[in-house]
Amino acid sequence: MSDTSPPRRGRGRPPKTARAPEGTRAMLVRAGVELLTEKGFSATRVDDVLNATGISKGSFYACFDSKQAFGQILIESYASYFNARIERWLTDGALPPLQRLLNFVHDARAGMQRHAFRRGCLIGNLGHEIDILPESFNIQLCAILQGWEQRVADCLLGAYDAPPTTAQKQLCHRLARHFWIGWEGAVLRARVEHGPQAIDLFATFFFAQAAALMGVAAPEMTETTPPVSPAPPAHARKGPAGA
């Protein structure tokens, strides 16, 4: 964030919006995540977050020691929400693994469409700013991406009889890495073009290739009805918006 002014405590009581049931800290985190999914970290100022919430700067610094600390909390919050979102699709044992992953793609695509493709993946957005972000952010981002890859790999391994062979494990991990590299690029292109074409093109090629390499049937690409996911965990029912 570009705001480098030192923290100052505001006078008097914070505005009523800061005492909403959601809580001051939660309101700031939610607004921060929404702004970062649209604008990125360096283009988002602390004042942008305060203007979005009606919370004073003094109350902000009562919750967070610094802007960097706030950014780290935003990353953690988004990752926690998104992890739960991924897991509730990928662990749906009633469906073949590739269909589970495709349903996640449909869900994320629909989420972007609800926001007119203005919001992307917070983790992917920060990756484009990595050279100007604190090193601690880089460590967080790498750990999150590796966790996402592991979740997809574990899902794909469900296509094989247990225990899978070493070759099958290696293939599923490669495909998981390919998926997230391609997915983040597709999400960025969808934001640039304000449309889903890049996501659809990526999905068509990835799932055809994955099915061929794994020796399984390819999922049906056309989404005739919106997929219905299992009920999300309680802590994830109200989370950040975005891809």
Question: What features would you describe in this structure?
Answer:
With 243 residues, this protein is mostly helical. It has nine helices and no strands. The protein is elongated. The N terminus is likely disordered.
What's the helix and strand layout?
Blueprint: H1 24-39, H2 46-53, H3 57-63, H4 67-90, H5 97-114, H6 122-127, H7 135-157, H8 166-193, H9 197-214
SS strand fraction: under 5%
By DSSP, the count of extended strands is 0
SSE topology string: HHHHHHHHH
Q: What kind of sheet is the major sheet?
A: none
Radius of gyration (CA) equals 20 Å
| Number of DSSP helical runs | 9
- Please bin the fraction of helical residues: 55-70%
